[in-house]
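> Could you send the GntR family transcriptional regulator prediction when you get a chance?

Sure thing. Input:
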Amino acid sequence: MEEKATRFSYVYQNLKERILTGQLQPGSRLSSSRKLCQEYQVGIRTINEVLDALKKEGLIKVEPRKAPVICQKGTVLEPEAAVLAVLAAEDDVRQVYQTMTLLLPQLLTFSSWNCPVEELPYYKKAMKVDRMGLEVGGWRAVSGLFQDVLHHSGNPLFADVYSAIELHGRANFFIEDQYPFTGLTLRTTSPMVTELIAMLKGPDPVQKYRKLTAMYENLASQVDSSLHLLRSSFPDCPTGGGSCFEWNPVRGRDHYYTRIVRDLVNKIGSGAYKPGSYLPREADLAKEYGVSVFTVRNALAQLGRLGFGKTYNVKGTMVTIPNDSTVLCTLQNQVSKQDTLLYIYALHFLSLAIGPSARLAAPLFTAEEIKELVHRFKDSAAIPLGDIYDLLLNHLQLEPLRTIFSELRRLVQWGYYFAFYRIKSGNIDKLNKKALEALQSLQNSDVTGFADGLSECYCLILDTVRQFVVEKYDLREALNLRIPKIVRS
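Output:
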């Protein structure tokens, strides 16, 4: 199996890169330890270990009862070195801004609905920037306000992916550091803060979506122009050596055995392993997943606790379906509760992001691939929506977007409720009907109808699962998520 990042390494590398790229300015303060725990979804021990490591490198200064201060030493890149670093990741940077244009208008339009913008933490800072102009560093207040809006959605994945996009898009460079080399700066071409706030507060979601899309398209175009000018000034700088886009919403909880559990549950839910049948032997599973037998045993033990398997001496592990008491017992475990919420957050994210992404990828589907998808609907035990998703993922040509969708897919596989509610209710028929209608739209060359149909599929799953876990298991945190309405541009 591929290498995994620990919680410590993820938070450490993320904060360090934000310091070294200038996204966190020398002299400014980090968020409090409590807020960092919330932002990175880790415990205080992990945050303290990260802060200790950054302090030893001289990147931060820790003061008693105060948030850590970013040290001047953090800005280690000379101006020309910063340019070379950007050009090394030139293709990656372009794709990040294209991904930003595709996703953020949708997420911000949804999140800003009925949002009390004036009450958000960064509102006053943003208004101060509006009075003084987007001076050096002022854009961070606007970025903070956008993150506040995304947090208002109730889905922490929105702000999390926004931070990753902003970091890998090297916003600090294009706003503050490129001017000596290109004569350009995004500070002079960005909308005024009052315009942005008016945009977010607008009552018409369609108009808001169009304005946000136009704003991000303009931003992507300006970054592209900057990269062309930089390339003409540094023609010999190699490209392709920059860091690729990364986003990891599970942050170190992604143990090898949990990956195996998710994959097995997904196969049980999709019918690959049927109830009453036996899983492959431990040695065969260890070879398949490239892990030790000990790791496989841990996975099978967790599978049993979730109610999806029962292990017998000699015979092996038989596939089972969890009953109500098993699920209720599982949800009393805080880790399982957080896993379930992550699953619901991923469904929520997909209900908004699948539409724009499908409009991008669907024109690349071949006639043979569409024909095979239609054939899948003849299998009563299949969930063709999963096959559609996999095909869409294969045709997404923006690597940052592929990364995001790959991670969301893993989170959806993590959610054993999909398989559970599928067995216990007739909603799978309704879901397959909607998925087939979406596919028929694509057969008729109606890409928009196909995209909107996929959005409706994930809205249906989200609504069903949310009601299921709230009514049956009192997981009331799920009520904070509003079911999206499709914004047709």
